[in-house]
């Protein structure tokens, strides 16, 4: 029996694939099992192939793999799309009474379970519950106590009345009983349950939760895949803490509303994806020049232009690092896991206010839509620290006034960080402008003041490089000569890839970098390595280019840009091939 269990449901967009997958993931989580999910969905409301995959184990799971044990196929295409991941003994649940499924051929070596999903659902109260019938069938196949499904169904349908909940429970049991009675088969799966208690959430939700924990009290955004769930999570929840969510008419309005709230003293943020970042770019300079703290989450997707809105890519790195006209000091933080989406968002708010500059939280679709389990203590609110930076009050403002009693919001300082006065602070009235300005915030074209203000703003980055910890996260064999470097959501797949590589006798040292600007100096690590491989989800190797520039050393590249995230076993194979190809070539030369 495999160490983990892989389940999927696939069909057409609009068939309830996402909600069905979430119900099963929630049931597994509440049964004390770790869960890692992935989604494949088309950029349309109805039609087009869509799937939801759940990988689960008693031990933590951090990526998807090329294996499917149970597949609920609502369309023939579902089987074709997943054929490479199915194996001998895989179980395919389908409804042979559906017109499109009547001629389905189950691949050799696999087990087909023809279950009248629609008919059984109608017996339980309505055809709409056919997917729940399929979940009941899957519970029987996986020897997973169907009672664990009940709490997930209660959570999903409780708001619609107890009768709806009861109907769904009955539908699930009809699916289980049908397989039990009609198929005398000893399935090779048994899902162990535990008493563990886990939190199940995705990356967008973790960003939203981190924002609330960090004290964010204003969010402005415009719906855009795959960043919308940040706004969805915050809506209603942030109000409990005196905050407000505003759905703006477009991305330009969203970032300017967020900027206004930040100027008023509130911790403020916006979130969008690549096309929205394009529209927001003009405001980046205003944020930096006016020295306003603001957090901007960019949840990346495939581009350019509209690209593939529901597919994975890490293509916005250059935009985050260099976007905007002129020279704009900014910080770029890239969470490396769903849990880090929480902690890096908290950190982003602190950095924004400590250095009075825009901070980008660079996430991506793979992390945004992935639901993963964590022990509750992973998000220990007692560990959250809030640093609001150089905020002056009535007692300290005198230190930052000129001889006429005027406050200097852009005072020249050794560390580049000026004082900040919230509206209403006695003696703190001031102005800021997008034009170059003097210490009082008044426009100026004085050449000496221009140089001093530019240098002052850039000193913030220099100060942060010296005072903050920008270290990468390290995994694997610290003594290995094979160095792998990556950023963002690739971390989980790479951690599991290390195990695959070790089984094949190849050790690697893995550095996962969450700080893209400022960033760690990896020159010593590169110099000590025999091979450096940079892993990322884009075509041109944007992060590899940055690291080659920093270290003056060429690197090898593993790039994926077909719209699908890295899988652990796939990534291990790519790295092994990349490293051993050159080794074989060297041996041939020596021979």
Could you walk me through the main structural features you see in this protein, from its secondary elements to its overall organization?
It is built from 18 helices and 20 strands. The protein has helices at residues 17-30, 76-81, 117-124, 130-141, 147-157, 162-182, 203-213, 228-234, 251-263, 274-289, 317-322, 338-355, 365-369, 447-467, 491-503, 523-528, 542-551, 568-590, and strands at residues 5-12, 34-40, 49-57, 68-73, 86-94, 111-114, 199-202, 218-221, 244-247, 268-272, 294-300, 331-333, 358-364, 371-374, 473-476, 482-487, 509-513, 515-517, 531-536, 556-559. The longest helix is centred in the C-terminal third of the chain and has 23 residues, at 568-590. Residues 585-591 have low confidence and may be disordered.
Per-chain topology:
Layout: E1 5-12, H1 17-30, E2 34-40, E3 49-57, E4 68-73, H2 76-81, E5 86-94, E6 111-114, H3 117-124, H4 130-141, H5 147-157, H6 162-182, E7 199-202, H7 203-213, E8 218-221, H8 228-234, E9 244-247, H9 251-263, E10 268-272, H10 274-289, E11 294-300, H11 317-322, E12 331-333, H12 338-355, E13 358-364, H13 365-369, E14 371-374, H14 447-467, E15 473-476, E16 482-487, H15 491-503, E17 509-513, E18 515-517, H16 523-528, E19 531-536, H17 542-551, E20 556-559, H18 568-590
Parallel strand pairs: 1-4, 4-5, 5-6, 8-9, 8-10, 10-11, 11-13, 12-13, 16-17, 16-19, 19-20
Antiparallel strand pairs: 1-3, 2-3, 7-14, 12-18, 15-17
Helix pairs in contact: 1-5, 3-4, 3-6, 4-6, 5-6, 7-8, 7-12, 9-10, 15-18
